[in-house]
Amino acid sequence: MKNQLQTTPEINERLEELIRSTHPPKIQNVVSTVDLGTELNLVVISNGARMAEYNPKRFSAVIMRLNNPSTTALIFQSGKMVCTGAKSEDQSLVAARKYAKIIQKLGFPAVFKNFTIQNIVASFDFRKPIKLDEFTKDQQYRPVVQYEPEIFPGLIFRKITDQKKITLLIFVSGRCVITGGKKTEDLNNVFKFILPILDQFKKRDLEY
């Protein structure tokens, strides 16, 4: 895309200005998975663990929660576990290990393997309203954007980089949500990528 090819000193300077004036993405949720390596009896877990619930008629996993770090785990009979709610990659790892130790203390030969960050959701505020209609009509971005305000109020911008599918939700207020990242570096790269585009389609003061 055009903004990726432009690397003049003036454009680099403008990007630095945008970065300084916009708070970096704040992580809202980290989703990770881990394999506990053993079959689990979910009834035993729900009865033996604090802050755990299991209703097989509604969902086929134990839902367990921690206060520190504040997270939720979905624990399946197969031994697979999904951890959500962490605010950083390290926090997600700490939480997943705590859940695994709880399972071990209940008598299961659980191990901790294949820990993987599946998704990082973050948000930031550009602090300027965005002209989403013009954004959508621009020929350069039409193949990668979707905007149907009668269905969803935000513009959906899809970016594929290094085999990762990153999605940005861009709202007219300037608020943006990034999802699909696997590490913090992904968020920062997409943040720097999208700032000049938002700057291109921001509403000027006289347009408010």
UniProtKB/TrEMBL annotation:
Subcellular localization(s) per the UniProt record: Nucleus
Principal place of residence: nucleus
Family annotation (HAMAP family): TATA_bind_prot_arch (MF_00408)
Keywords assigned by UniProt, alphabetized: DNA-binding, Nucleus, Transcription
One GO term (biological process): DNA-templated transcription initiation
Entry's family note: Belongs to the TBP family.
GO MF annotations in UniProt: DNA binding; RNA polymerase II general transcription initiation factor activity
Record-linked Pfam families: TBP
Classification via Gene3D superfamilies: TATA-Binding Protein
GO (cellular component) term, any one: nucleus
InterPro entries: TBP, TBP_dom_sf, TBP_eukaryotic
This protein's name: TATA-box-binding protein
